[in-house]
Amino acid sequence: RGGAQAQQLARTTQSSKSEYAPLRPTPSEHATQMIGDTGAAALFAGLEQNTTLNLLNLYDHPIRNLGTEFLWTRRLDLCALAFHNLVWPPPSLATQGRDAVYAFLEAVKDKSAPLARSRVMFVGAGGSGKTTLKTALLLWGAGALKTLHELRRSLKETIELQWT
Q1: Residue 88: beta bridge partners?
Q2: C-alpha 156, offset from chain centre
Q3: Which of 67, 31, 23, 71 has the alpha carbon at shortest distance from 47?
Q4: Dist CA 58 CA 81 (whole Å)
Q5: Which pLDDT value is given to residue 87?
Q6: SS3 for 79?
Q7: How far apart are CA 116 and CA 59, in angstroms?
Q8: Mean pLDDT, the chain, whole residue set
């Protein structure tokens, strides 16, 4: 499964006889078929549905970051990748080899959750409910619903007093 095996020849079938062809593409193919981080992530995710591919050579491709999708390569007989070129997982771990990378990504997968944040700016006249709205958006927990109802009532009263 290592880099030395990536240099081996892959069996291909043409017509009725078997021939051996090098795993590395020719220079003209190489220039047009490079796969980076985004392409690799999509390719690895697609391996979930794979039933036929058993060898994948990405050794010469500029892949610098691996996500948890890389775990799907476990199903392959061989997945050649330049671990020494990786930035993520950290190089100190990536240079320890495939098994260390799998263990790291498995831990990441088990202990992570999607994170989405956005910045919002509320603009309005004093007393129009900017802080109340912010508080309502940040509510969570057992008493959140009751607090939200109280905030709504307070906001309606403020609007009725100032706009009527």
Answers
A1: 65
A2: 43
A3: 71
A4: 5
A5: 92
A6: strand
A7: 33
A8: 78
